User: Fold these one by one.
Assistant:
Number 1:
Amino acid sequence: MTEVALRIAVFAESYLPYLSGVTVSTEALVRGLGARGHEVLLVAPRPARGVEPGAAGAPGPEPSYAWLPSYQGPPPAPPGYRMPLPLPSDALRRAREFAPHIVHAQSPFVSGLMGRRLAQRAGAPFVFTHHTRFGDYRHYLGPLARPGSAAVGAYLRDFWAGCAAIVAPGSELAAEIRAEVAERANGADRVHVIPTGVDVAGIRALVPTDPRAAHGWPSDAVVAVSVGRLAAEKSVALLVEAFALAAARDPRLRLLLVGGGPAETGLRERAAAPDLAGRVAITGRLPRDEALALARGADFFAFASRTETQGLVLAEALAAGLPVLAVAGPGVGDSVRDTEDGVIVPGGSDGEVATRFADALARLAADEAGRRRLADTAREGADRFDLGRRIGQILDLYRGLRATPDA
């Protein structure tokens, strides 16, 4: 049966070339929909003058773009993070002329409000993917953290009320949103768990890059790798302290941090301390394919963040055939199968987690046969993350909404 082509307007608050879990997820969505024969218009902040969006590696055709007027976000926004200006623009005119069947927002803020207005005008279902646990970023607000967090919570509840469907990438986040919207008619029924898919075949095809020679590490070094933004909310400092404890027990252990961010300077200073000197390498920001190739050259993946909606990088690591060592937190159990393709360390205070994580690091480093078993299971089971499968779930959602008159 031939699939009926849809016109889908996707509204993004940030996009490539800035790399983040949200921009990678957005590219996967728009290219994945295009690969299925649907017409996609991506409405997103214009990159800086003279800069092209490029690609992060998702398969599928490049979407049509409608670029919103944009500006470089103020601190703590990182360099290259463009934000949309809430102004009338040719992009919004193009979006109206596009006459979408579905409007899908990737943010609840400026671009999300633009998308919601377009959906109302076009009589199209309005879908929102909740990518970020905004409360976990309140430390950037300083003394305004508590009132700011409360205000964002109230705003989100109002925004959710205007959505025909809310997509949560992880089951824990979905449960939290359902609890918040349950008092509204059919509120909980509008929340759907659909994780972002990854290009499993593309990741498997990457040629591993061995980090040992590049950093002067011995050939028998056991390398733990972590890929992602170096920031407080990602608990990278906790990961480094746990590694220091484990490395004191096993001199073969090395840690590779792939990424950059606001915590990078402090982490480099910590890595230069006598107990870690020569054992920790930090790459800074890298193109995504380079980052994943480096990860493939390591022995296992280490992840201490407890602020994720899905932990997209966990799916990428497992698709790369890496066992995953992670702290129990939102989204982790949706990706990692404890004792099958990874090890999930129980949560607790930072001190408790650091001790438990260090113990698990040392055990995994010492158990080469166990690592091979976990890696084999990771490779065998990675097809559950396949992007095509996830795009199919999104399309099923779209079709259901279009078949519902009051969507």
Number 2:
Amino acid sequence: MGAACSSADFVGTPTIGPAQVDEDDSVIDAPWLLDPALPSNVLIGTCRVWRGPASGGPSWPSSNAISSLLAGPQSTSCVSTNPVLRSLAAGGLLNNASAVQDSGSPVLYAGMAGKLDGGGSVGGHLYSITTAGTASSTSTWTDLATSPVTNGQGTGFNSGGFDLSAVVADPHDATGNTVYATVMGFAGNGINAAHLYRSIDAGAHWSNISSNLPDAPANSVVVDPNDANTLYVAMDTGVYVTTEVTTCTTANCWSVYGTGLPNAPVVELAAAPAMSTGDGRTGELRAGTYGRGLWQIPLVTAAIAAQPVISLNPTSLTFNGQPIGTASAAQTITVTNTGLAPLMVSLVAVTGDFNETDNCTAAPIAINLTCTIQVSFLPTATGGRNGILTIYSNVAGGQATAALSGTGLAAAAIVLDPVVLTFPSTTLNATSTVQNITISNTSNNAVGLQGVIVNGGDFRVTVNTCGPSLGPGVGCTVGIAFTPSASGTRSGTLTVTDDVGTQTASLSGIGTSPATDALSPLTLTFGAQQVDTASAPQQITLSNTGDQPLTLIAAQITSGDFTVVNACGNSLNPHSTCSMNVAFVPKNVGPLSGTLSVSDQYRTQTVALNGIGIAPPGVSLAPFSTVVFPPTGVGLQSASQTITLTNNVGAPLSIQGISLTGDFVILPNSSTCGASVAPDAVCVLQIAFAPAVGGPRTGSLAVTDSAGNSPQTLSLTGPGVDFALTTNGITSVSITSGQNAVFPLLLSSASNVSGAVTFTCAGMPANSTCNVTPSSIPLGGTTTVSVTVLTGVASASSSRPLIRRSGVILFATLFPLGLLVLRPSQRRRVAGFALLCFLLAASGCGVGREIPLTSGSNPGGPSGPVTTAGTYTVVAAATSAGLTRSVNLTLIVQ
């Protein structure tokens, strides 16, 4: 209606209200649509389906109900215990041209609300009827949710019972059998939630075509009005498109469509094929968001005024009789663009006992130019065989077809199996897995073989078990490998020449180039931006010109006052681009820089980011938010940070005082803030963190001046680090070279101190090393530390090998220390225990322990470097945040 509408059109009694649908309960926004086959009719869903005049008028009679109550109590009207509808769709050819209520689309679909949103026991089910023209209030509809999902991996249709947010019948399918359904739910918590289903047999079987869509609710789906193979889906995360919907069951087919949508769920899509795009084309896609407005973008197939036109020559193919299990010679269909715009073929499909190869999808077909389709006949049974070749493209109606026919004959004496060999997508110059063709003699006589030849440079014979002849009932095998030299479909033939004729098998495969990850630009420069506000975003474009998806995409700001929104998702389809929107949100004044890191399956790339932060109007301090200092040891001073006072007014600013609280200091001679600051000028202070005690420390800076918002204040914070390292008993140990000395220590700090300490040793004698266990300890409590000095070893990096001796290590490592602290009677018992361990070593006293080789004069015993006898001071030190604490330990080597 557009301009013809006024406020007067939206007052008074509604055209369709509760009275017209018998006061039925329904979802808040009851689903409805104008019947596409008869727009004077409207379809409405409550807990059942209604059809009636779309114009105003009296209440509908009960005959306008064309279904029974789909579930729940069967009473006169819907009540709260009746599951309600969430979506409706209509398709199929018009029944008749009359305007009575039962005219219009014969095929109807009704999607239910979720089991938690009003769908109850049939939450998320889908019902249909194919005889809507004669339906009544007692008609029973078919529950399609019980139909199998062909690629569901054991999961049925909408097993989570979520809302079927949208159901759409493909308008290109005159039968109404092609239908799509979106699911408004998340996967997780043991629920495998598909987001989009497709059926081409009116719901008798379903395919999950969610493919690489994100795990988010799907809210709407639209079939491109110009191309049945192009589909758009609206999700909570944006709008996605595929131009090859038939591949979505097995491959990543979805791409983000467009840029610039707000960060809000997209709840509805609508296509307007005749709407001008403003650039000479027609065809718009409109997207409604949740609370963020209505948006539009040209359709993928938006047509310019000059339209392509597809012409096929011939329009049908008839093949001569062909024996079962053999392939005919190929016949050619020439596709010509007779229009005034480039022709883009998105898919060539064939049904029946026929096979095709083509060069039509590789690139757009310019005006008056052609592409070719090679069709072969491969009968699987005797008698007449028929098929259809369909070319999907950007022409009016979206497709063109050619009829195919041929006659299957009885099998020949020599049979090839298979007669069509299709290789999977293979990376350029890589070699596929070998596939075999069996050559069998089905006759009662020997047949001579004159040769096996492969035509097509991307295919080669790797195995050939065939000799000069085949005996009766005997077969041989030829192995074929595929090594593509170029992208796209590659084809060839295997020809076998024998006494009874020539047998041919067709070979085909797809060459794929690896994914690419070109990032552009690698530098973004933003203009001046007020502190704590966001700039307009700038885009980084990621391009994949390869034939395979680019995966594991991630983007993050690794430094600087910038933000990034990754509109690429975690994968990028072949021959696609996507964008990342970067904004500058300065927290400080002056030139600022940062880095964006973009990673994928191959590498991580960086983008340099630059901008200038400017102060807001008036008088202000920057950074704009709390200044955070790094962990700093008690008694030390951190590196300074610059604080800027800006006077953005037209008069001098008088400074009465600058005060600082907490463990923070203004560096001497660092301040340029005197008695006043000139108009549109700045002064700076250098402030450092000097904690007096450990734990979180806070403070503030206050500048008292003549501004109306005086004083200007800024919060300061930083973690102070303090700890103690003390001995835990023994500080002196006597050993001989080859033995180990163990010193216990205690590391203690307050519970509110964060960070970790690392340990080092100094002062060890030659041919010894020092091990501290653990080597790194988090602060915030008390921890026992063990310092072990190993003697009789070359160095820490070339220590002596270890001998595994059952029962020895416990004695060797603990015995010296234990004897130093036990009374004489206890020493005798410990010594006896150690001797017993030696005697019972094989039976498991300390089984599995290890002990270093010792050095000394023991004849026949292990030998190694000797640590010179003497008294040594070993210094064990712990360090964190620049603070070091140490203890002195005495090592006596005898």
